[in-house]
Design a protein that fits this description.
Layout: H1 2-21, H2 32-46, E1 52-60, H3 61-64, E2 76-86, E3 104-112, E4 118-123
Antiparallel strand pairs: 1-2, 2-3, 3-4
């Protein structure tokens, strides 16, 4: 009985070590909570009002940004969406005078799932995201 337990222990230990060596632990990437915190910092820098979390999901870049570069389309990312007040990047040419578009009401921050590095940010349509 003792040798069976020892054999099971050794087999389990070997399986854990093999999974770690093959990237089993690292493949999971940063946890959701960390992704939300990193993305919130970025979104808040761009919003005129406090941001509120709408959602956080992981998947491929292609699933959140269909027009992504083919070489990056299968990159695993976190997509974290916030409500806030995100002014347009540009109001267009200086002349003739014209009003700026309304601010966007939502923003999605895409982060590399493995490292948490910023990939890109996208804003929704004016007044409703």
């Amino acid at each position: 009985m003792r040798s069976v337990r020892r054999g099971l222990f050794l087999a389990l230990t070997a399986a854990v070590l093999l999974a770690a060596a093959c990237g089993g632990t690292a493949a999971a990437g940063i946890p959701r909570q960390r992704a939300v915190a990193l993305a919130q910092t970025r979104a808040q820098q761009l919003s005129r009002t406090p941001v509120t979390l709408v959602s956080a999901a992981s998947g491929t870049l292609r699933s959140f940004e269909p027009h992504s570069l083919p070489a990056k389309a299968d990159e695993e990312v976190w997509a974290v969406t916030f409500d806030g007040t995100f002014p347009p990047v540009s109001c267009g040419p200086a002349a003739p005078p014209h009003p700026c578009p309304s601010p966007n009401a939502s923003m999605t921050v895409l982060l590399d799932r493995g490292t948490g590095a910023f990939v890109m940010g996208t804003t929704g349509g004016p007044g409703g995201g």
